[in-house]
Amino acid sequence: MRKLLVIILILLLVLGALGASTVFAAGATWSLVSVDTIDCAGSATTFSMVLAGVTDPSPYFWRTIVDAGGNRYMDENAGNPVSTDNGPYSWTLYNSSSGGPVTATFPLPNDTPITVQLLLTNGSEGPAVSGAIVTIDKCNGGSVTSITPILPASDACADPLPTNAVIHELPQGAPAFYAADLATATNFSIPAGTWYVTQTSGDFTQLWIACQANRVWVPSNAVAP
Description:
This protein is mostly beta strands. Helix content is 6%, strand content 44%. It is built from one helix and 14 strands; from the N terminus they run αββββββββββββββ. It has one helix spanning 2-14; strands at residues 29-37, 46-52, 60-68, 71-79, 87-92, 114-122, 128-136, 144-150, 166-170, 174-177, 185-190, 193-201, 204-208, 216-219. The strands form four sheets. A five-stranded antiparallel beta sheet has the order 4-3-6-7-8, with no helix packed on it. Strands 9-12-13-14 form a four-stranded antiparallel beta sheet, with no helix packed on it. It has a three-stranded antiparallel beta sheet with strand order 1-2-5, with no helix packed on it. β6 (114-122) and β7 (128-136) form a beta hairpin. The longest helix has 13 residues, at 2-14.
């Protein structure tokens, strides 16, 4: 974990991270308290969540996205919370395409890594401003392998994680480019690991690095399906 943090900090510096305000703006939070159950069936994987700081009128929406084995099993827009919705929740995973199209239905596949995005977005199609990304090694007797919190919306977050971002692996790492053009090569490479993919253009794929860093492009043939 320390090595990963150092890599991200180096990338932030090299990519020209935008200057952060010394005072962070208050914002609503959608926080993961615990992962309570893990199972392959619909409505069988559950999380304890807490909503806080929502005031009226609220621009926020709940969004839950579930990916496994290259398929999207859930993309739910659970509506627009208001101030009276602040408090604890039990959150479950099940068949829903109210937020966007899916390519498969529950049950989740056995022995397959799962990525769950528990998001609070700014607008129904807007960027994630709070929440968590949870990865699970498998649904059949599996366990949580990582939890990445999403920071609350603030003046310091110039590029929040897009809701359409999908996690992909760079098995060998890849050279970084400022644009989808061979003439825009940088003097650094993106290390091997998992990264958020936001779009493709020609032979290039764009990666989201962090809310305070510029996005970069890598050759698409370096990105695992």
